[in-house]
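re: the backbone from monday

yeah here it is again, tokenized this time
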């Protein structure tokens, strides 16, 4: 599997990359890693890090490096980072999971469900159905219309794919195409079947300083 943790995290405020910051005393990335390194069906974890960190990872991460966990350097975009992780995976990996290192609260149940779905030969995206009313806004602040939400889901990670599917999708990426926001979209563009796997809102992505405060509160509740 590939854990993407190569971003600078500037929206989380000044300081070290957000994925290395503690959430209730435990580095955010370590919380995400533990869910997969402890999973019996995950044979190898490749963690994609910012430039300079793969060779000199934080001490808490360096202690985990070995045959089962390998750090590599990411690229300028998420797609480049996932590709770097894919290239570092052992050849025997036939199903690949991709997870955001800034999602520290993924559950074993979600991981199990994504793996099971991907093993059937389709792409699997952990997701949550939208509950909010959605507005399309134009000209700065004017509401153009209300968007029907009945068939809309918020994509999360992990996302799982047969390895051949994901590699073929990346092989068809055209530099002139819009940048994909996740691997599910990449596989959709390539014409592969991708399905949602119901997830929990706890598995949110920590992006801003406010998200970090919410994560702290959730970590205290879940300990």
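seq for it, each position gets an aa:
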């Amino acid at each position: 599997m590939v854990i993407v943790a190569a971003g600078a995290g500037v929206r989380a405020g000044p300081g070290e990359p957000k994925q290395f910051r503690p959430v209730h005393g435990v580095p955010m990335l370590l919380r995400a890693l533990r869910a997969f390194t402890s999973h019996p069906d995950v044979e190898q974890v490749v963690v994609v890090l910012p430039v300079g960190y793969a060779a000199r990872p934080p001490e808490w991460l360096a202690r985990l490096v070995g045959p089962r966990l390998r750090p590599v350097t990411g690229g300028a975009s998420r797609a480049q980072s996932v590709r770097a992780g894919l290239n570092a995976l052992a050849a025997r990996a036939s199903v690949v999971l991709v997870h955001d290192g800034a999602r520290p609260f993924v559950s074993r149940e979600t991981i199990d469900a994504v793996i099971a779905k991907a093993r059937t030969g389709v792409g699997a995206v952990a997701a949550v159905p939208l509950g909010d009313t959605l507005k399309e806004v134009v000209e700065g602040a004017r509401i153009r219309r209300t968007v029907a939400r009945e068939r809309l889901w918020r994509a999360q990670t992990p996302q799982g794919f047969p390895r051949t599917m994901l590699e073929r999708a990346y092989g068809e990426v055209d530099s002139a195409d819009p940048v994909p926001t996740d691997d599910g979209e990449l596989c959709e563009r390539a014409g592969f079947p991708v399905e949602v796997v119901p997830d929990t809102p706890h598995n949110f992505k920590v992006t801003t300083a406010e998200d970090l405060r919410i994560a702290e509160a959730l970590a205290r509740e879940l300990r």
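The first helix runs from residue 28 to 37. The helical segments are 28-37, 59-62, 78-88, 108-118, 163-171, 183-189, 209-222.
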